[in-house]
Amino acid sequence: MHGFKGERVLMRIHVDEHDKYHGEPLYAAVIELLRSRHFAGATALRGIMGFGASSKMHSTRSEYLSFNLPVVVECVETEERIMEILPVLDDMIGGGLITLERAKVIMYRPHLPEDERNETYPIDITGSWEAQKGPPNA
Hints:
Blueprint: E1 7-16, E2 20-21, E3 24-25, H1 26-36, E4 43-46, E5 49-50, E6 58-59, E7 70-77, H2 79-92, E8 97-104, H3 114-120
Antiparallel strand pairs: 1-7, 1-8, 2-3, 4-7, 5-6
């Protein structure tokens, strides 16, 4: 069970749909790596249009290149765990891009009744962020 408190790091790994690692899709190998290392979770998102360093357009609208669409793998973890996995990802990814950014995480447990969720899974708000009522100040 992961308890998310305070800031975490959002890692986005940008690759192509047909990139491979040991014969399997790279995005699937990355997700399996993160799962095997007990990361909190990961999601692969298939893009409908994009281009990378080569400037070749990949789009669902192009019959020629629609077979190799962009894929982004996202995960949120502690900065320490993200930094530990980067050398492994560096060996796996031949071409692509990894971005890292700080993220404030709020975890919901909707499968539990609210009274149990509050006692069992308290939300710990740290730092200067506070929930605002009404529209933000301009």
